[in-house]
């Protein structure tokens, strides 16, 4: 997730949108979430049209661990494309091997080919794609209940370091992080007609 940290050093004049922010609000960004209790700038169901945003309004859209909660992933990516300026950046992370976590729903897990195709079909060029996790951290997901809390997080972080030392197999990735650029052409050109 190193390239997500890079955005903190960007010019303050850049407009950023943080979709599904939860507790992790970005300073200087418009933070949007469906949950009023996390006190976002805007409370919004992002499965609906994003009427709060204009076409080509943002330089960046951040959507971390949100797509698995959306039934309408195509609509979501279409809205990301719409609100980004041409050449704007989408920072996206999605789970692959991860426990069920409904808040409010949990619909999907994503593979690398799935993410690549979804982004390409919605007018994005992948600049960078990284995976995290591995065999050791997958064991934490299987064996340790979330109720363990801080101890679970500590064990998970330690085992992620083990995974970095040992060769990583894409069969055991926890999540996929992507930095993608909005292409110039209209979105309709990227969507294939149904057979």
Overview of this protein structure:
With 195 residues, this protein is an alpha/beta fold. It folds into two domains: 146 residues, Vaccinia Virus protein VP39 (Rossmann fold, 3-Layer(aba) Sandwich), CATH 3.40.50.150; 34 residues, no CATH class. 26% of the residues lie in helices and 26% in strands. The protein has five helices and seven strands, in the order αββββαβαβααβ. The protein has a seven-stranded mixed beta sheet with strand order 3-2-1-4-5-7-6. α4 runs antiparallel to α5. About 3% of the residues have low confidence.
Residue-averaged pLDDT, rounded? 83
In DSSP terms, counting alpha (H) and pi (I) runs of 4 or more, how many helices? 5
Largest sheet: 7 strands, mixed
CATH class of the largest domain: Alpha Beta
CATH superfamily of the largest domain: Vaccinia Virus protein VP39
What separation lies between the terminal Cα atoms?
Answer: 37 Å
CATH architectural designation of the largest domain? 3-Layer(aba) Sandwich
Question: How does the SSE layout of this entry go?
Answer:
Elements: H1 2-5, E1 16-19, E2 29-33, E3 42-43, E4 58-64, H2 73-83, E5 84-95, H3 112-121, E6 124-133, H4 135-143, H5 150-165, E7 173-182
Parallel strand pairs: 1-2, 1-4, 2-3, 4-5
Antiparallel strand pairs: 5-7, 6-7
Helix pairs in contact: 4-5
Features:
195 residues, 2 domains, seven-stranded mixed beta sheet, 7 strands, globular
């Amino acid at each position: 997730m190193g390239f997500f940290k890079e955005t903190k050093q960007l010019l303050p004049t850049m407009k950023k949108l943080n979709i599904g922010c939860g507790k992790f609000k970005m300073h200087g960004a418009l933070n949007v979430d469906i949950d009023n209790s996390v006190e976002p700038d805007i409370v919004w169901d992002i499965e609906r049209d994003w009427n709060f945003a204009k076409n080509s309004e943002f330089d960046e859209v951040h959507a971390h661990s949100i797509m698995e909660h959306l039934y309408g992933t195509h609509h979501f990516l279409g809205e990301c494309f719409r609100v980004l300026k041409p050449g704007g950046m989408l920072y996206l992370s999605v789970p692959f091997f991860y426990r069920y976590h409904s808040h409010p729903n949990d619909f999907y897990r994503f593979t690398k080919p799935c993410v690549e195709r979804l982004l390409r079909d919605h007018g994005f060029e992948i600049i960078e794609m990284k995976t995290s996790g591995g065999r050791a951290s997958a064991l934490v997901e299987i064996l340790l209940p979330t109720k363990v809390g801080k101890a679970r997080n500590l064990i998970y972080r330690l085992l992620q370091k083990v995974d970095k030392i040992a060769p990583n197999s894409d069969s055991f990735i926890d999540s996929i992080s992507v930095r993608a650029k909005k292409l110039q052409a209209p979105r309709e050109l990227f969507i294939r007609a149904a057979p």
